[in-house]
Design a protein that fits this description.
The chain is 40% helix and 22% strand. The model has no long low-confidence stretch (mean pLDDT 94).
Amino acid sequence: MKAVYPIILEQDREFIVVTVPDFEINTEGKDYLEAIEMARDAIALVGITKEDYNEPIPTPSEVKDIVLGEGQFLTLVDVDFADYRRKNDLKTVKKNCTLPSWLCYEAEKQGINFSAVLQEALKQKIAVD
């Protein structure tokens, strides 16, 4: 799922403070680039965690509904939750599969890593890097 969320930025003494109203979270960065990257990362992390717990990911607020305080300004951050999960959710899971014994024998004889081959084939099949 892809979405675009409004974020509020505000210069602090040392950092750019970021508020993400739809997720009720804050983060910060040393400059605007880092602040926006941190916001994207925080939104994606909370979003996939909500998915893992079967909770809904918040719908982005309308920009017109965001109220800004003095010294604050609004910008938008795009987030691709599926892409974030692929790149950052590196936990492994065990899967059992079956194959003919002759094929297993030949592959083991050649020292083939079954997990690596299965991962490579699945990535190719579903067209992801």
